Amino acid sequence: MTDLDANLGLPLHRQVIEVLLSQIANGQFLVGDRLPTEEALCQQFKISRVTVRLALKELENAGLLVRAPGRGTFLKRSPAYTKGDSVRELVDVQDLIAAARGKPWSLQRTGVMRAPVRAARALSLEPDGEAPYHVSVHHDGAILWAMKRFYHPSVADQVDDTVLEAADFDVALASKLGGPVTVGSGWVEALIAEPHMVITLRLPVGTPLLSLWTVSKHQGEPVAVAQLLLPGNGIGASFSLPRL
């Protein structure tokens, strides 16, 4: 099953299009292949048939699909797609984190949701506890950065637009809290891009991602957990865990 996100600010049928284009670019569907039925797509994306038809119609109008009554929907041609430079750049994790600070970010969405178990534990929350969060992206040449940050409910009132839109979240939050906010610990994960990441990062489904988590503290107490996501096919990381 694939859950689409109504909070992305992107219409659901456009999200379906993004995922289908990613699957086509990934080679999941080749020219001449029949796509899943409307009913199957409705079940996959948990959306209405009207939304599925709108998505397929746009792809048909773009000349990518052909719909044959009684036979199904077929891929007519593939969209232009470039995987980019295959040379992997080796970067130190600390350098990646430092480079991310001070970058201009584009705020994508905010909300409240259940934090991942390890992030919830880092924030001293109950395993099923909810936390405010926001997602931002930044494009730096060929590298697309995405930041998902959860923060403790106790500081939610301090995280206003000036903090969310600041180049350095920790510095901006520190000014609100009246004391320094420092990065105290962190960890590294390897992920595979899922459909919702495809929509945010404009990457093919299955793209390897480097996931760097850092914990920010104020007066020794955790106030935020940040997840920095980067396309892993162009980035190789070296790191020393005690430094995080």
Blueprint of the fold:
Layout lengths: L11 H14 L12 H8 L3 H13 L3 E4 L3 E4 L13 E4 H8 L5 E9 L2 H6 L7 E11 L2 E9 L9 H4 L4 H9 L3 E12 L2 H7 L6 E11 L2 E11 L3 E4 L6
Parallel strand pairs: 3-10
Antiparallel strand pairs: 1-2, 4-5, 5-6, 6-9, 7-8, 8-9
Helix pairs in contact: 1-3, 1-8, 2-3
What does this protein structure show overall?
With 244 residues, the chain is an alpha+beta fold. The chain has two domains: 6-75, Winged helix-like DNA-binding domain superfamily/Winged helix DNA-binding domain (Arc Repressor Mutant, subunit A), CATH 1.10.10; 89-243, Chorismate lyase-like (Chorismate lyase, 3-Layer(aba) Sandwich), CATH 3.40.1410.10. Helix content is 28%, strand content 32%. The protein contains eight helices and ten strands. It has helices spanning 12-25, 38-45, 49-61, 93-100, 117-122, 161-164, 169-177, 195-201; strands at 65-68, 72-75, 89-92, 106-114, 130-140, 143-151, 181-192, 208-218, 221-231, 235-238. The strands form three sheets. Strands 4-5-6-9-8-7 form a six-stranded antiparallel β-sheet. A two-stranded antiparallel ribbon has the order 1-2. Helix 1 packs across helix 8 (195-201). It is elongated and about 65 Å long.
